[in-house]
């Protein structure tokens, strides 16, 4: 600034100009803070819903630091601009505050002058490089998947970066061409714009993820078709989402005693278009089906699309009567009160702790409430979703866990409540036991185990680590984990267990020749590849002495592609081991180009042995 003692006309003019620049900087800062405060008011209801009400994570804490620590700093800065005594007071009380804040946010002080130009240029180049790399990967995934999170990241992220980039470029240009006292006037505005847009992007991603979860996860009863076959809707997505949507495919209806259309599961009445023939008329197209949605509602859409895929079905009272009949398992002797069962779905309503595996997998109260609802649905059997036997090998955060490291009295008591809620109205409740193996996300375990060393090549934003083949000692430990979980399931009041050998879980990885490249007793022919399953079943029978304890299995048909004889031999061996039921599931995780051929859509079928 010009010396105040320079009383020449030129000196006075410079002093007045510099004073005007200082005032401009003050009001520019006030305008920037006002913008941020206004945005905080506009988005606070979303912040409360998606940040404050949720369990706090590292992302939550970073969001709150970004959202609230910066305003505190700028309140101090603004007050100091208008009250010079604050500048001295704050400097004495907190001598490093300016260094700390400018070091954290990578913005320089105006006093840095031209030295800041190179730093700011590097800042803009770094931001642009990171954005370009993220955008390139995001665009690649957006072409391969229709994930709403990818779409939000692509659209909002691009728009926000353009704004931040433009503001920073303007600032960079000003450092070269503006007056000395105006070079860094854009510093605070640039930072506050970044604060606002990063906060908005975080909230948008969380709200989009929440909306997507509500649209794809719909708890409800399983729905065999009118002919008693379990239909699966042509829905592309993770297995837990596929299963949950398939529970709505092929809703069954019958006439009540009063002669009115009534759902057997209490969901509601079918539209009139379903009261006679269910299925597409000759020449029906997807466009024709979409027109029916407005007339017949959601249930009609699911009915007709399922029928378009698998062919028309004509319901009859005999079909409905058959579904309502009891069925008794051959080996355990347990009886399902009806032939309708709820297949396992990824519930993700269990405790999760990123840092402490022993705090994972306890059923939450809302899951117990959900099982109470399912228990009133008239199911013959309810199968729980994806209870893992190793707290470090989860398919996704929110999975249930039964492992020695997690088995506190409170943990087991919640599983007792879960079983009791599902069994309250006569349904059998079976626990699905699983181990994710190589399908464990890298952010949960970057060094997963598997049957072999084949890394997952699924095209997804979830990173999977390079798996380590299990040693024989490791296999014995896995067998023990399944046995322990089964014993706890029996102790907690579950009627049985289902081994999860589908969706590329660890047991599926042993069965599949694509993932099992071993040359020892657990690789090669089907007897060797299925040896771990036989050992688990034998060991459970020895540990759980109850002859009425149900044991079933869920098998992945893709593991037996072009190996029909292997599938037949495997099922015959399972029957010899006294398995009560086998559930077959189709689909594939591999991208089409890695398969070399198309995969025929297969129905999900449940076959009592």
From TrEMBL:
Residues 27-69 form the DUF6533 domain. It comes from the Eukaryota. The keyword Ribosomal protein does not apply. Gene3D superfamilies: Aldolase class I (3.20.20.70). Coiled coil: none annotated. Residues 254-263 have a biased composition (Basic and acidic residues). The chain crosses the membrane at residues 27-46, 58-76, 116-136, 157-179. Residues 365-555 form the NADH:flavin oxidoreductase/NADH oxidase N-terminal domain. Keywords: Flavoprotein, FMN, Membrane, Oxidoreductase, Transmembrane, Transmembrane helix. One of its GO terms (molecular function) is oxidoreductase activity. InterPro entries: Aldolase_TIM, DUF6533, NADH_flavin_oxidoreductase, OxRdtase_FMN_N. Pfam families: DUF6533 (PF20151), Oxidored_FMN (PF00724). Residues 209-288 are annotated as: Disordered. Residues 233-249, 272-284 have a biased composition (Polar residues). Belongs to the NADH:flavin oxidoreductase/NADH oxidase family. This is NADH:flavin oxidoreductase/NADH oxidase N-terminal domain-containing protein.
């Amino acid at each position: 600034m010009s010396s105040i003692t320079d009383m020449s006309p030129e000196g006075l003019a410079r002093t007045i100009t510099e004073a005007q620049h200082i005032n401009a900087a003050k009001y520019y800062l006030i305008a920037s803070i006002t913008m941020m405060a206004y945005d905080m008011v506009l988005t606070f209801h979303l912040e409360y819903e998606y940040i404050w009400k949720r369990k706090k994570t590292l992302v939550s804490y970073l969001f709150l630091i970004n959202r609230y620590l910066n305003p505190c700093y700028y309140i101090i800065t603004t007050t100091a601009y208008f009250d010079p005594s604050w500048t001295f007071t704050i400097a004495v009380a907190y001598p490093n505050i300016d260094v700390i804040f400018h070091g954290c946010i990578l913005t320089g002080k105006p006093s840095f002058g031209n030295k800041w130009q190179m730093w700011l240029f590097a800042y803009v180049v770094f931001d642009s490089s990171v954005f370009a790399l993220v955008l390139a990967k995001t665009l690649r995934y957006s072409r391969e998947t229709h994930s709403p999170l990818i779409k939000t990241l692509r659209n909002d992220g691009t728009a926000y970066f353009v704004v931040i980039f433009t503001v920073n470029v303007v600032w960079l240009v000003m450092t070269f061409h503006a007056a000395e006292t105006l070079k860094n006037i854009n510093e605070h505005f640039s930072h506050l714009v970044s604060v606002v847009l990063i906060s908005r992007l975080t909230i948008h991603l969380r709200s989009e993820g929440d909306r997507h979860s509500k649209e794809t996860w719909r708890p409800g009863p399983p729905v065999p078709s009118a002919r008693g076959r379990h239909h699966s809707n042509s829905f592309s997505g993770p297995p837990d989402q596929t299963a949950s949507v398939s529970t709505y495919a092929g809703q069954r209806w019958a006439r009540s005693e009063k002669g009115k259309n009534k759902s057997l599961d209490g969901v509601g009445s079918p539209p009139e278009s379903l009261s006679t023939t269910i299925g597409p008329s000759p020449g029906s197209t997807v466009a024709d089906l979409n027109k029916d949605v407005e007339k017949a509602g959601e249930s009609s859409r699911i009915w007709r699309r399922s029928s378009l895929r698998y062919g028309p079905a004509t319901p009859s009272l005999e079909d409905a009567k058959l579904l309502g009949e009891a069925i008794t398992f051959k080996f355990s002797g347990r009886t399902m009160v009806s032939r309708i069962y709820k297949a396992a779905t990824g519930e993700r309503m269990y405790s999760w702790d990123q840092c402490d595996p022993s705090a994972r997998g306890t059923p939450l109260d809302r899951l117990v409430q959900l099982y109470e609802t399912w228990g009133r649905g008239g199911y013959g059997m309810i199968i729980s979703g994806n209870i893992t036997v190793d707290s470090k090998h989860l398919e996704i955060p929110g999975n249930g866990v039964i492992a020695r490291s997690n088995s506190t009295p409170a943990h087991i008591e919640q599983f007792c409540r879960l079983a009791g809620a599902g069994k309250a109205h006569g349904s059998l409740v079976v626990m699905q036991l699983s181990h994710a193996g190589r399908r464990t996300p890298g952010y949960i375990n970057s060094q997963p185990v598997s049957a072999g060393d084949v890394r997952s090549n699924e095209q997804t934003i979830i990173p999977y680590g390079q798996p380590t083949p299990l040693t024989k000692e490791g296999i014995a430990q896995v067998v023990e984990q399944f046995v322990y979980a089964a014993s706890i399931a029996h102790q907690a009041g579950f009627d049985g267990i289902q081994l999860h050998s589908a969706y590329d879980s660890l047991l599926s990885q042993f069965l599949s020749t694509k993932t099992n490249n071993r040359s020892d007793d657990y690789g090669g022919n089907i007897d060797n590849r299925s040896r771990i399953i036989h050992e688990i079943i034998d060991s459970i029978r020895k540990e759980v002495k109850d002859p009425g304890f149900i044991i079933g299995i869920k098998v992945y048909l893709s593991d037996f592609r072009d190996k029909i004889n292997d599938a037949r031999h495997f099922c015959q061996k399972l029957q010899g081991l006294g398995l009560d039921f086998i559930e077959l599931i189709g689909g594939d995780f591999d991208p089409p180009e890695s398969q070399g051929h198309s995969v025929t859509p297969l129905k999900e079928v449940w076959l009592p042995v």
